[in-house]
Amino acid sequence: MKSVVFKKQAALFCVIFVCGVMAPRLFYLFGAGDYCAALSPMHIFALTCGFVCGRRYGGVCGFLMPVAAGALFGAPAVYPTAIAMGFEMLAYGYLTGLLRSKIHFAAALAAAMAGGRLLYLAVRLLLGAMYGGAYSLTEWFGEMFLTGWPSIVCSFAVVGILIFTLKKAGIVRFEEND
Question: Are 139 and 146 a contacting pair, CB within 8 Å?
Fold first, then answer.
């Protein structure tokens, strides 16, 4: 039985990973690049992966999506953005997977987004200190909250609908340990 659960998680991980890497490309393909930046579709897939596949797959998926997209398509820029986003989304996936059966869904989602955004700040400051390049708290706050609020709202709405639908369909159960 554990083997079947593992295979299902691995298959879902692969689907979510590919969708997460390709979703931003679709926005740009259809001329909606500005909406992509505002809605952050890749974040939705990292958060969903943690809820659906657990903390390990969620963390790996979250880290690899922006790095793979940056390497394959040049956006986001690998340094410093994709690296910092990788750590941010690693936290998204890991924390939603960790908290999915411990606290209410909305609280797990909020905690994961807060943790990811704080980790993004830490990585950007560390990269700036190591390799040069200024990054400030003001810049971070502007990116994450002032211009990033549509992404937060979109994540709550879309991830909420996805998880509710997957639970109703019996595809995911949060009681499982990963």
Answer: no
Reading the block at residue 46, the tokens are 């990292």
**Conformational region of residue 102, where left means phi above 0, alpha means psi within -120 to 50, and beta covers everything else:** alpha
What is the distance between the alpha carbons of residues 139 and 4, in angstroms, rounded to a whole number? 46
Model's pTM, two decimal places? 0.90
Token pair recorded at residue 1: 């039985």
Task: Kindly report, residue by residue over 86-111, the tens digit of the pLDDT.
Answer: 999 999 999 999 999 899 999 999 99
Please enumerate in sequence order all residues whose Cβ is within 8 A of that of 112, keeping only pairs 6 or more positions apart, or say none.
47, 50, 91, 92, 93, 94, 95, 96, 99
- Residue pLDDT, tens place only, 43-76: 999 999 999 999 999 999 999 999 999 999 998 9
